[in-house]
Amino acid sequence: MSFHFRTIDWVIMRASWESVDYPLLAAKGGVLDDPHHGHLDAGQFAIKYRGEWFTKELGYMSPYGLGYWDYRRRFKDYVHANSLGHNLVFVNGEQQEYGQQYFGKVTSFRTSQNQDYAIIDASKAYPGKQLKGWRRHIIFNKPSFFVVLDEVKSAPGAEVVARVHPGVPFRLKEDRVLLIGQNGMMSVLPLLPKRFTLKEDRHPILAEQRDAQFSWIPYCDLITKASESKTYIVNVFAPIENEPEAEEILRSSSLSFKSSVLRCITMYKGKQYSSDFDISGDFGREE
Q: DSSP letter string over 255-272?
């Protein structure tokens, strides 16, 4: 059911075609050279659960106004198209850029009955002045939840941000985000780094069009300071029935590094899951 569409470099992870009780994830690489409908969003992912997008892609802006179709302005001024409006990683605010030389690539994908695993290297989607490398790993522990690892290269002391745009109402707490849909809940649970801040913010939206309505689009940032040249960010995206379930996942989870593997052990609904991330090999822009 899960598949890597190699021509467009999209990954879809799912456990069922029939039941909405199991979440679905879509993620992408791709070349950032489409001046018409393209977005600067290599590494982006979105999660659907029980009929709602719990983490979302802002998608096509409507109404948009004439400036939206000038690609030079669209990628500069419109968060629907530039990196700021996507679920990506930023180092000192550096965004992805437009052009054939900017791209992300799904470098690995495997699927099995119990687990899917994809790796997206989006290092070359950025100019490389601040973000020296970014590799996103996504593991789907079927049929229920996802663990996302972001490996980020930067100068020590840089501000590293992992952004998520909720598609449903949410509550931000000191150590978690609760996404509250009409038919279910999902928790976003940071396991790494040990020191981070969760911050809610929002994009101001006003189309260049007569009688356009002003609006806000909220998002959540996990913010940390790089203590070394590589930062690891691990988040669990798990459907829950109540908040104590989120607390139990946080309490019972553990992380360990062994050779070229980062292992995340997670207890979910009474069952133990192991997510082994392959952190071997090099990635990023050449110095």
A: EEEETTEEEEEEEETTEE
Q: Give 96-143 pLDDT, tens digit per residue.
A: 999 999 999 999 999 999 999 999 999 999 999 999 999 999 999 999
The C-alpha torsion from 258 through 134 and 237 to 194, rounded to 10°, is 60
| pLDDT tens figures, 152-167 | 999 999 999 999 999 9
Burial (CB count within 10 angstroms: exposed 0-12, middle 13-18, buried 19+), residue 172: middle
Give me 64's structure tokens: 């948009």
Q: What is the pTM for the complete model shown?
A: 0.95
Which residues of 78-169 form beta strands (DSSP E)? 89-91, 99-111, 115-121, 133-141, 145-153, 159-164
Q: Would you say how long the chain is, in residues? A: 287
- Tell me how many degrees the CA angle 195-88-151 measures, rounded to the nearest 5: 55
What is the set of domains in the chain, with CATH numbers? 3-247 (2.70.98.70)
